[in-house]
Design a protein that fits this description.
The protein contains eleven helices and 17 strands. It is of the alpha/beta class. The longest helix is centred in the C-terminal third of the chain and has 25 residues, at 289-313.
């Protein structure tokens, strides 16, 4: 939808179209009478709006159900939102895999795919996996790339508004990568690039553990923990997109870096990657004393980092995700320490979306962009 001013004679019709379209999107097929009641508009107004939405392929008339009859004759006409009128992609570009979700305009997933990638892979190899996964899900769903209305991407690092990764230490050649610009060359639609923890926070608020809370901190626990925050339901990115980078707190001189925290010898843990960390946790679970001490140090650092963020933001809820979310013993120490350090301890729960959180949040960001186009009506004052 285009921009409207207060003097635009089509303003009222555009507002009515937005209202009707949203009702249809959020409802099963409706008759004109039911649609008018739910939209709060007259039946003739709704009928005119629906005809216009049919012309632009956003609404379709449903075929009568088998056996459907009315005393007056033919069945009442029913209409539905055409979720298939366009498609959305939500993609995670992570250290070990690239994952994609494809949906219609209603956000319901039609296809999903994932491809493994080595943590040591360079930027070109990682982006090659990206395109392979995109091709996989489009082929699975039988959807042409030209049908895409928006693409959301979640990835580690500090991401600027234009999709440039200002700092990305988790992936080789990621710092300074103009990721948004590179991806937009091959899509005829908006491409939104976001930090992975921010995307996961959005996902948990949409479909996960935080659907009933608007003040939320999502912690992506792992090698270098990061966090995403929602304040009154809105994503808080900070001035330059660096909000929630709690994994950098040890750089302030608070203690040992991760490779020393997780070491079970007198030397730093090298290579410091997810596989090595998982091995330390596995040995701790088997009773290895030094591995157990390393895990205790890791958990202590994690809870202190989260406490710093909780003290600053006072969230209602903290959601723990990432690979560490599945490790026994994370929640109880975190709850205990937050009770010690915080004036009002938040609830602490595990992610419900697990490994799908980042891609799901990226899909939600793409859906948000499309909804701005479909439903938002911008009104400027006609009088200056």
């Amino acid at each position: 939808m285009g921009r409207l001013t207060g003097g635009d004679p089509s303003l009222l019709r555009r507002i009515n179209s937005s209202v009707v379209l949203r009702v249809l999107r959020d409802s099963p097929p409706l008759t004109l009478t039911d649609l008018a009641r739910l939209a709060g508009l007259s039946r003739p107004t709704v009928e005119g709006v629906v005809e216009g939405l049919i012309e632009v392929d956003l609404v379709a008339e449903c075929a009568p159900e088998e056996g459907e009859t009315r005393k007056q004759g033919r069945p009442a006409r029913r209409f539905r939102f055409r979720a298939e009128a366009g498609h959305l992609l939500g993609i995670e570009i992570g250290p070990h895999r690239v994952t994609a979700l494809l949906s219609g305009l209603d956000g319901k997933v039609l296809a999903a795919g994932s491809r493994e990638v080595a943590q040591s892979a360079d930027a070109d190899e990682r982006l090659e996996r990206f395109w392979l996964v995109v091709a996989d899900v489009l082929e699975e769903a039988g959807v042409a790339r030209g049908s895409l209305r928006a693409v959301g991407v979640g990835t580690p690092g500090i991401v600027e508004a234009d999709g440039t990764v200002r700092l990305g230490t988790a992936l080789p050649e990621w710092t300074g990568l103009r990721l948004g610009k590179r991806l937009r060359r091959s899509f005829d639609c908006p491409v939104l690039v976001e930090n992975d923890a921010n995307a996961a926070a959005v996902a948990e608020h949409w479909q996960g553990a935080a659907t009933e809370s608007d003040d939320v901190v999502f912690v992506l626990a792992g090698l270098s923990p990061g966090a995403g925050a929602l304040i009154r339901g809105r994503l808080h990115r900070g001035f330059g997109g660096a909000a929630g980078e709690i994994g950098a707190l040890h750089l302030l001189g608070r203690g040992a870096p991760p490779e020393q925290l997780l070491s079970t010898t007198d030397k730093p843990l090298q290579p410091l990657d997810q596989r090595a960390m998982t091995a330390v946790f596995d040995r701790a679970g088997q009773g290895d004393v030094r591995a157990r001490e390393a895990v205790e140090r890791f958990v202590e650092r994690l809870v202190h980092d989260v406490a710093a963020l909780v003290l600053a933001l006072d969230p209602e809820l903290v959601v723990i995700g990432g690979w560490a979310a599945g490790l026994a013993g994370v929640l109880d120490p975190l709850r205990r320490e937050l009770t010690r350090f915080c004036l009002r301890p938040p609830r602490v729960v595990l992610s419900r979306l697990g490994e799908a959180a980042v891609a799901t949040g990226a899909l939600r960001l793409a859906l948000d962009r499309v909804e701005e186009q479909l439903f938002a009506v911008e009104v400027e004052a006609a009088v200056r």
